[in-house]
Amino acid sequence: MTLRLGSIVEVLGGELHGDAGLNIEGLSPLETATPQHLSFLSHPKYQSQLAASKAACVIVAPSMRAVALLRGACIVVDQPYLYFARVTQLWKKSMAQAVRPLVHPSAVIDAEAFVHPLARIGALCVIERGARIGADTELKSRVTVGENCVLGERCLVHSGVVIGADGFGFAPNAGAWEKIEQLGAVHIGNDVEIGANTCIDRGALQDTIIEDGVKLDNLIQIGHNVRVGKHTAMAGCAGVAGSATIGSHCTIGGGAIVLGHLVLADEVNISAATVVTRSIRKPGHYTGMFPLDENAAWEKNAASLKQLHSLRDRIRALEDKLKTLEQP
Q1: Do residues 113 and 51 both lie within one domain?
Q2: Are the C-beta atoms of residues 11 and 20 closer than 8 Å to each other?
Q3: Residue 103 forms part of a structural domain
Q4: Are 11 and 156 found together in one domain?
Q5: Which DSSP string do the residues of 227-238 spell out, in sequence order?
Q6: What's the rounded Cα separation, in Å, for the pair 203 and 214?
Q7: Is this model's pTM higher than 0.85 or not?
Q8: Do 152 and 215 fall into the same domain?
Q9: What is the pLDDT of residues 228-248, one digit of tens each?
C-alpha cells in the first residue's frame, strides 16, 4: 500500500516542505529508510543519521528544520515522535483488513458473562462466568478472563494474557501451607493495553485495579490487590507484588520489581532492573542497580559491601572519640 505525503499532512497536520504528491510506501528508521519511506528524528543527537538518511521525507522538530531542509523533504511538528506514532495509526487504518467475525467460533464464553456487541474476541479465548468486556475492546488469541473480572472500553489484550488467576496467598500451618481463597476480582479501566503472556491476579478480598490508560508490556506479573494508577507504563518482565499501590503517570523499567504493600507516588520513574524496597512519596527518577563489572572486580566490591555496616560503626566510634578529644 501507499499513502500520499500530502494526505498524511491533511489528516494529521504539520508543516510540509516537499512534494505533497509523493507516494510513501512504508515507514522506517532513519538508518534503514529508502527513498520510498517516511522516517522521523526524535532527538537532536541523531542528526548525523538525518544527514545520511535516504528517506523520502523526515518528521522533525522546528529546531531541526534548517538541517532537515539541507537533506530534502520534511514535515515540521512540535513533537516528532508523537506525530510518528499517529502516522503508524493512520497507516494501520489504511491497510486492507480481512473480514472476520467479532467473536471467533473457537472462543469459550460463559452464558453468564457479558461481552459488548462491539468487542472483538480472538481464537481460543476463555471468558468465565460474570466477566464483563466493554465496547471496542479486543482480546487476541488465547486470552483468559476469569470470573467476575471487568475490562473497560477500547482495551487491547494480547495473546496469552491471564486476567484473574488466583493471587499468591497461603497461610503457614504446621510446616505446610493453607490456601487463602482469593475472593476479589480484577477491574481494568478504559484504553488499557496488556502485552502478551502478562498475568494480573485477582484480589484476595478486594479487587486488583488497573486504571484508565495503563500500558503493560509482555511477561509482567501483577500481584493480588495491586492498584496501578492512570497512564502508568511498565516494560517487559516487571513484577509488582501483592497490595502495592503505584501512582499515575509512573514508568517502571524492564525487569524492575516493586515489593508488596509499598506505595509509589504519581510521576515516579523506576529504572530497569531496580528493586523497589521502600515506599516512594516524592516524584522523580529512582535507580537501584549494582553496576556491571568484570566478575573478579564485582566480587571484591560485593565483599566490601558486606563490611559497610561494621565500617559505619567504626567511623561513628572514631567520630565520638574525636568529639571527646575536642572538648575543653
Answers
A1: no
A2: no
A3: no
A4: no
A5: EE-TT-EE-TT-
A6: 18
A7: yes
A8: yes
A9: 999 999 999 999 999 999 999
